[in-house]
Amino acid sequence: MIRCAMRHAPFASTVFALALASTAAYAQPAGTQPGGLTAPLAPAERCSECHAGGTTASGERYMAADTWSASIMANATRDPLFLATLTVAEQDSPGLGTVCLRCHTPAGFTAGRATPGLGTRLDALEGDLDGVHCDTCHRSIVPTGVAGAPFLSNAQLYYSDAPDGMIPSRFGPRDNPVTSPRHPSMGSAFIRDARMCGQCHEVSHPLTNRLMADGRDTGAAFPLQSTYSEWSQSDYARRAQPETCQTCHMREITGEMLPSTRIPDAPLRAGQRRHEFLGANVWGLALLKAAYPGERDDEYDALRAQTQAYLRTAATVAVTGAATGVAGGTATVRVRVTNLSGHKLPTGYEDARLMWLQVMVGDAVVSGAYMNDELVEDAQARVYRFQAGRLEGGVVTPSDFVARHNVVIEDTRIPPLGMRADARTAPVGRDYAGGADGALRNYDEATFTVPLPATAGAATVTARLMYRTTTKHYVEAIASANRTDDRGRTLLALWNATGRAAPVVVAEGSATVTVTAATASEPEGGCATQRGAG
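Above: the chain sequence. Below: its structure as tokens.
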């Protein structure tokens, strides 16, 4: 019997952010409108009846429904962090919640159940809690006769439809798709195209323009997420064979010929792609497991381990500098962090994503300490983040609430290889100029002064690139601001129960400094002293 893998479709990271919707305050964008489909987007459970249950020769599940069901995509509607943020957004700006839900529940939005913006009318039986589900992608089309489509922002997706009583086509990556007894099947180049992902992974504030710190209006909407632009401006997009979102985040199964469905006599294919959509949200999977215990605990654990391993492919860290130093003195080392991903590091929903360098001599942290569940920003701290703010009364202050952002205080995230940034994506607060052919550098270098041991020997200097999905400050701010329902309290309790989004190591490097004993002319501190002639 085929397991109904989609019944619960839990969580969603804030990796999917806002998208425009119809309310009195928010203008209707392009894309399929609420009530615009004769054939509604189907619950993912129906797809699992055929696209689940297969295993590789080693017994590993690989079919789309099985690998999708525990993913962040599948869980884009029930994430406690998203839900608490959604409540605050709706409190701050009524109607904005519906904007968020257009990305997080395409089924609920197109059926007209994403209003009101708290999601109180969503219907689990109709697939509204299935998050970013099968039909979201496999019915996504580029409509003919619509100028500018596809629209690369704010979930302005168009979906295939069919006359009443008929079944709409589903689209796959093959030119010769399997003939299904359940629906018409067609090949589609668009489902292999990064622009399909860019429909949601490029998000602008629907009402607010980006301001400069002096109050000048840039005339452009405030950028809430720019992952697609970051990629499209990089070498990854310009290669003869582009490395797309799909090729990086949907692992290909090599060395086996496998069917994509359990339909009898389905053809065997090479290059089946898994649907976990691996990213960086290690903590989010622990949050899901705690929020919905017993639903798919083992799947969350397994995917969390895979996500952590995947995250470690995103960057390298190298330490260079002083080879020798004097006991009790200091040494200067340089740390280079190289971004190996196809977008900024980190990317995604930009509030509270945080990376930084932690530098140690032996076991002692010199810079980038983590104490009381927060980063200690010392004088040498090297931090990679997007910090949004709000300009009011001529003063810019950091903003924790998405509805209020209007100034980019800083964007120190590391660009991808070959990035040619525009006004939307240009770094703020750190200079990454100097890449090949006028592009930005895909690496950052920082100098650290480190203390050496008081005795001669060898000292190991280690630099670790740390990452956390969200911060204590952000969670507490959202929980405190939540006054409409209990989502903030729920989030805070789950945060405390899941390690408080403790940082994980992305990459590390080290170097050894030979420590020599101080001499009479070299007192502690390592500075030679010139003595008088008596």
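The first helix runs from residue 44 to 48.
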